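Tutorial handout. Part one gives the primary structure; part two gives the three-dimensional structure as tokens.
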Amino acid sequence: MSQEGKKGLLHEVVEIIKLFFMAIILAVIIVQFIRPTRVDGLSMYPTLDNNDYLIINRISRYTGVKRGNIVVFDSTLPIDANTGDEKSITKKMLDFVLQDDSNTKDLVKRVIAVGGDHIKIKNGVVSVNDTVLKESYISSDNYTDGDIDKVVPEGYLFCMGDNRMRSLDSRYSEVGFVPESRIVGSVFVRLLPVSNIGIVK
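Part two.
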């Protein structure tokens, strides 16, 4: 290969490396605002189904969330698949790009009450500040178990899954009140399956 050909090849390799690093930097910037995630389980059914792919709005970490919002938060529950083994380089790179360095499980739930709210659950009826909630997102055959009568501390949220009979959420000590600081973002759009693509409410 001629000297000129070698220079041309070297130039192309350098350009490819530049593009690769630019793509990484762009991805890191983008995930400050949005992030993809996948639903694992049926705790939010019928609103969300197992293996739905979502885009979450990460700006809500700073602007705050409201009652009725569906949020993703970093729980204190260990990831089942995490056996303590060293993460692979690929996994570490993906965690860096997605800004996820946690060894605990992300949960998808609906915000039922915010800091200062009085949440009460009795005989399957949910009320916030003495007003019974009209929860059209719950299927008619679902029942909200629990006996709760508490005031949500400031800076915390009370979150439950829409599939109340199959949801580990704020009703149980394993999750409890969710610190706002653990919010990853609010669910914005469902990407997959294509048949259900659109804004999630």
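Part three, for discussion. Residues 3-30 form the longest helix (28 residues). Confidence is low (pLDDT under 50) at residues 81-85.
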